[in-house]
Amino acid sequence: MPASLTARDSFYAVKSLNDLQTSTERATDQLELLVVTAKGNAIRHRIPEATREQVMPLAQEFRLEVSDPRKLRTTSYLPQAQQLYQWLVAPVKAELQARQINNLVFLMDTGLRSLPVAALQDGQKFLIEDCSVGLMPSLSLTDTRYRDIRDAKLLTLGISESTQAQPPLPSVLVEVSTLVQQIWSGTSFLNENATLETLKTARQNRLYGIIHLATHADFLPGKVNNSYVQLWDDRLRLDQIRQLGWNDPQVELLVLSACDTALGDREAELGFGGLAVQSGVKTALTSLWAVNDVATAALITRFYKDLRTAPIKVEALRQAKLAMLRGQGYIDNKQIRGVTPTGIPLPADIPGLQDTQLSHPYYWSAFTMIGNPW
């Protein structure tokens, strides 16, 4: 990997399952890969043996296997991860290597947008070990300009206690305090102070470039206002985000911690993060399923630590994932290790994890960067 990453190192990949000449979906539609790089001609591959009726069920099975917390001591996801890699990545791998591409941005067909592509596997390595990966809902709706985010101020709202029948998230206290006291410059509001009014007024008073919401979020099928982010006394509905003015001035990064999407549901695939990007937020970091509270705090704090030194946002996420995969981010003796030199203490009464090692892709592949990866 070169010392720095720029837009020149990136490509946009369209994974389309229907004939590009028609919008009608058919079971016999063949998978088609279209790769566009900054230099060189576009790369196009059709995979005749990968049809819609084969790919979609396999993608759903992969999501279910890798997101099942009952299977953390297994590799039951590997057959699907390897077959999807053979269809989605292997046909263009040689060309990508020849062009020294190390940042992949996927524009997926409907039904594949909630695929945890970081956990695709070639038989030896995960895709995330070779390159950083992100998603774009639409190239035309994405602001692809680069801005150094390291001088942006952080606004954090976190809810650790039970509210409106939601279970508590005790690690949120650790996550939020570590971010604003040890890693990043910003302001935090917790529990009864984490309200919709706070979210609106705080940014009016100060130009926060990063907004971090550490709370429950549910992205459900059906009407857009079915889905929400839980605040203390209210719920921020998906259809309210356009009213928050996050595009004026633009929010560089929105982080949704402890969120949960409807896996595989076509109406809720990218959830709040996808809508945020379409509403003007440059980049959103969200998760495809509800990861363990402690593991989420471990990855998110590590992400912000790496964001201080990484050349682009998506590379910071890659480094955080690799730390967990390689055992460099883990839980030991009620502390998060691998973020600060001395460890981050967890609340004494917090439930323990099955594994102190967080290397299973259940813990790290859920976290997905949507929108501008730079």
Task: Furnish the topology, listing elements before pairings.
Blueprint: E1 10-16, E2 30-37, E3 43-51, H1 52-66, H2 78-88, H3 90-98, E4 103-108, E5 132-135, E6 154-158, H4 171-183, E7 186-190, H5 196-205, E8 210-219, E9 228-230, E10 235-237, E11 253-261, H6 271-278, E12 283-287, H7 293-307, H8 313-325, E13 330-332, E14 335-337, E15 344-345, H9 361-364, E16 367-371
Parallel strand pairs: 1-4, 4-5, 6-7, 6-8, 8-11, 11-12
Antiparallel strand pairs: 1-2, 2-3, 8-9, 9-10, 12-16, 13-14, 14-15
Could you explain how this protein is built, in words?
The chain folds into 2 domains: 7-135, Nucleotidyltransferase, domain 5, CATH 3.30.420; 149-371, Rossmann fold. It contains 9 helices and 16 strands. The chain has helices spanning 52-66, 78-88, 90-98, 171-183, 196-205, 271-278, 293-307, 313-325, 361-364; strands at 10-16, 30-37, 43-51, 103-108, 132-135, 154-158, 186-190, 210-219, 228-230, 235-237, 253-261, 283-287, 330-332, 335-337, 344-345, 367-371. The strands form 3 sheets. Strands 6, 7, 8, 9, 10, 11, 12 and 16 form an 8-stranded mixed beta sheet that branches. Strands 3-2-1-4-5 form a 5-stranded mixed beta sheet. Strand 11 (253-261), helix 6 (271-278) and strand 12 form a beta-alpha-beta unit. The longest helix is centred in the first third of the chain and has 15 residues, at 52-66. The two termini are 16 Å apart.
